[in-house]
Amino acid sequence: MSFLQQEACTQADLERIAKVLHDLHPEETGWLKFNAHKNFLGFGDYDVNVMTAALNENECDLKWHDNRTNIEEADLSSSVGLIVHIQPEWFFRRGHWFAIRYLDQVVTTPVVPKTFVGQPRAARSEAEREERDYEAKTFEPGFWNLDSKSPHPEYIGDRDSLNIFLHDLAKKNRVHVLHVVPLKTMSVSSSST
Q1: Which of 19, 51, 98, 188 qualifies as a cystine partner to 147, CB 3.0-4.6 A?
Q2: DSSP 122-164
Q3: Other beta carbons within 10 Å of 178
């Protein structure tokens, strides 16, 4: 799980969770009898129920953002971060999940030249492999896009930049935003209602 920035669960864990959820309610699968909590073609895509259970095992929970309200109105003070789901335009396309996380420290990272992004280290010349003079870039505390489709984490910026990022994303796609909150916070807020 890229969101937790550690190997908090493996694909085997997600498969186990999907099987448990399927075994709890096998009648929901319909006449085809495939597991509705994961992609039946074996692509490894899991539904939100599997993601919620995996986060629960790591002391977190999901809180859906109401799309009828602007993201600017969302209170992110108790959120550990966000998970964004881009819904596919048509049935056979796969949706995509990615995480956004706030880092409250200054981060300095090497800037890898675009010619090397996605290129295996062995494909570079010996001189290029030995060269360590990458430019370093320093980022202020802020939100980071941890999308696995990107070659590296992308700095978004402050809360205003996050709002712009999510608005731009919503203009092009059907987007669902979920707040990841610690389980303790979720139980306190649900018991107070």
Answers
A1: 98
A2: GGS-HHHHH---PEEEEE-SEEEE--TTSSS-EEEESHHHHHH
A3: 22
CA distance linking residue 125 with residue 34, whole number of Å: 49
Whether 83 contacts 3, CB under 8 Å: yes
Amino acid, single-letter form, for residue 86: I
Q: What is the pTM of this model?
A: 0.71
Residues 9 and 7: their CA atoms lie apart, in Å, by 5
Rounded average pLDDT over 51-55: 88
| Residue 6 burial by Cβ neighbours in a 10 Å radius (0-12, 13-18, 19+) | exposed
Given pLDDT bands bounded at 50, 70 and 90, which one contains residue 71? confident
Distance from C-alpha of 190 to C-alpha of 171, rounded to nearest angstrom: 32
Distance CA 29, CA 47 (A): 14
The yes-or-no verdict on residue 121 having pLDDT over 70 is no
pLDDT of residue 193: 46
Distance between CA atoms of 76 and 59, rounded to whole angstroms? 18
Task: Indicate the residue type of 38.
Answer: K
Tell me the C-alpha to C-alpha distance, in Å, between residue 142 and each of 79, 90, 132, 148, 158.
14, 34, 27, 19, 5
